[in-house]
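Example record used in the benchmark description.
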Amino acid sequence: MPAYTGGMNRHFAQIIPVLLLLAACAGTEKPMPATQAVVTGTATYRERLMLPPEAELTATLEDVSLADAPSVTLGEVRMKTDHAPPYAFSIPYDPAEIQAQNVYAVRVQITLDGKLLMVSDTHTPVLTRGAPDRAELLLKMLPPSQP
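Model output (structure tokens):
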């Protein structure tokens, strides 16, 4: 019977370069690109008052292309107004939904206990037709509703 000549070592010698190649490639993986983008901005108001910390700001990114149809919401963020303005926000959205010929705008409102306190009352375009991906909004206080 012939003596064992180390055939197993030959297999290891073939595997080692493959393992080294895999180890080298492991650190070079690039992260997958994000499927979301953001519109950033701030909202403020002229009135010299602090809102209750439980008041809620809602910032919405909308497709406002069709004049005689309701806007289509593409992204929204909600936050508490637990500090003095301006209130910074970031609205996530799917960039695949953006079409160059359409018009997009940011709208902001502040509510307290379900009642509307402040709104943005001007069109604030973003993303297309030369508009930036940032919005600065000045909110208007609504008169108190009568019971």
